[in-house]
Amino acid sequence: MGKGKWFFIGLLSLAPAAGRAQVRAGAAFDPARVEAGDTFALRVLVSGVQAAPRRVSFAAWHKQLPAANMLDRSEWTRSGAQWVQRFTLIAFDSIGPALPPLTVQLHLGDTVQTNAVELLVTPQRASSELSDMDDIRDIRREPAMWFDYWPWGLGGLLVLALLVRYLRRKRWRRQPVPAPVPLAPPPPARETALQKLAALEREKPWKQGRLLEYYAVLSLIVREYLEGHYRIPALESTTREITGQLKNTDFPDTQKPALEFLLQQADLVKFAEMHPPETAHELALENARHLIEAR
Fold it and tell me: What homologous superfamily is domain 21-122 in, according to CATH?
């Protein structure tokens, strides 16, 4: 037990050095299976650099996803030791199942390649068959004559006369300004995080060899929940800083060791290329769910 503890501490001490020594980039769709016409998100993650990357080049996807299909993109944000940028896309044609790696231009002009990304866009189901419809003959219209519209003209004059009479007998009264309809509040951070965990569990990226992408997305979901629910800058903080910031919140003290272990495990996979055993992947997701559901 003592040797295993010191080995784990040694890996933690090497994790920051490994992140600085090698620049890595990853990309993942959320969700990775949609119908044509639906919107979906793309996350690009870059680690091993201090300054924010400049841009992501989508030239490799020009035929499948032209520039017109990009609806929105966020600024680069710091999430622990990595930079994250989010894109909102839409596809109208069938795509899949794999897209080539993207090129990320770094601050000093160097570039780094992401992993190949899986995306399956299926066509929408047709609601009816138009090919079975009979031919319809064109309609022959007679030329319009002025006397065809005299009832409408007479009715309009009558309505106008009644309106003038009404305005002469009544004073103008200022109508009360309707109260603005309050916007529906955004869903709670806990509900959003649990929905994302459910989608990640259905996708199971670790079974497809996308281990780095899985732990990066899992860590991002937990950090977004902590920032939204406890109002701390979790996306811009390291694992040690997060545990210190939670001391001023009502986060359960009994859950802090599990949270620190989960985030450190994700950091080791992302930056030290550690490969946990197969049983650890689903256990990490289940631990994340317990942390979010804890009261």
Answer: Immunoglobulins (2.60.40.10)
Hey, what are 58's tokens? 């989508």
Question: CA-CA distance, 293 to 295, in Å (whole number)?
Answer: 6
Return the structure tokens found at 1. Answer: 């037990």
pLDDT at 221 over 90: yes
Question: End-to-end distance of the chain based on CA atoms, in angstroms?
Answer: 32
Token representation of residue 161: 């006369």
Q: How far apart are CA 94 and CA 85, in angstroms?
A: 25
Q: Which residues pair with 240 in a beta bridge?
A: none
Which residue has tokens 């309050």? 182
CA 94 vs. chain centroid, Å, equals 21
Q: Where are the domains of the chain?
A: 21-122, 189-293
Q: If you average pLDDT over residues 117-136, what whole number do you get?
A: 64
d(CA 54, CA 152): 64
Mean pLDDT of the chain: 81
